[in-house]
Amino acid sequence: MQMKTEIKNGLTVCYVEGEIDINTSPGVKKSFDKLISSKTPRIVVNLSKVTYVDSSGLATLVEILKNMRSYGGRLRLSDMSSKIKSLFEITKLEKLFEIIADEKEAVSTFV
Amino acid sequence: MTRSGPLEFLKRHKEPSGKTLIKVPSETRYINKVSSEILSGLARYGVDESRLFDIRLCVEEAVRNAMVHGNHCDKKLPVRTVYWVDNGVLNVEIADEGPGFDSTDVADPTLEPHMLKNSGRGVYLIKKLMDKIEYNEKGNKITMTKILK
User: Fold this and answer.
1) Does CATH number 3.30.750.24 belong to domain A2-108?
2) Is A55–B32 a contact, with Cβ atoms under 8 angstroms apart?
3) How much is the pTM?
4) CB-CB: which of B29, B116, B122 is closest to A23?
5) Residue B64 sits in which domain range?
6) What ipTM is given for this predicted complex?
7) Does residue B70 lie in a domain region?
8) Which of A21, A81, B61, B70 could pair with B98 as two cysteines, CB 3.0-4.6 Å apart?
9) Residue B2 within any structural domain of the chain
10) How far is B16 from chain A (nearest CA, A)?
C-alpha cells in the first residue's frame, strides 16, 4: 500500500494505491494520523488504484471518518471500483460515508 | 519430521479424496497465502473476477477470524483450511483450535448502533457473499460454499 497527498482547490486529496487489508491497514491509519493530528478540515480519498479492501480496511476507513468527525472534519471517498463500492453497499457503510463517483466532482462540490 | 522455520510451517497437502489441506500458523501474514493457494487451485475453472474477489475476501475473513478470535494469535496453534470443488461448487472448511463461538452472537454491523464499531463485518460479509455457510456444533469450524459459475 502506498499513499501520496496533493492539495487541490485548497483541499487535501489522498491517492491510496494497492490493497487495504489486515496487514496494510495500520500503514493506512498511520498515513492519515498525520492529517488528522493537524485537523485537516476536508479530505478526498481517491481509491481508483485500490484493488482490494477487507473488513479491516473498512474498519480503518470508519476509524478515520470517526477521528475526522471528532474535530468537525469531513471525508469523501471517490473513484471506487464497482466491486469495492459493492462492499460499502452490502455493509450499509454507504450511508455513513460521502461516496462520490469521481475526484473532480468530489473536489469541485466540496464546500 | 519436525520443521522449525516459520515459513516452513505453511503446509499444503493434496488428499486422496481430491481435497487440499492448507495448514498455517496463526500469524496474519499467512492469511493471503491461504487465499492465494485456493485461487490458484481455481484457475482451471474459469471463474469470473467478481466471484474470485468474493471467494478471496471470504476465505481471508474466515482465516483471520480463526487466527485472531479462535486461536488468539497464538503462533503455535494452526488454522486448517480444506477446500475442494464438487460439481462446480467450491467448498471451503476453515477450522481453529479455539473453544468455538456462536455466530448469532455477532451484532449486525449494518444496524445504526453498530455501524461505527470495528467488529462484525467479516462474518456479515461471509454470510452475504457466499452461497451457503455453516458452523460445526462447537463453533470452531466454518464450512462455506460458492457456486463457481
Assistant:
1) yes
2) no
3) 0.92
4) B29
5) 7-147
6) 0.92
7) yes
8) B70
9) no
10) 33
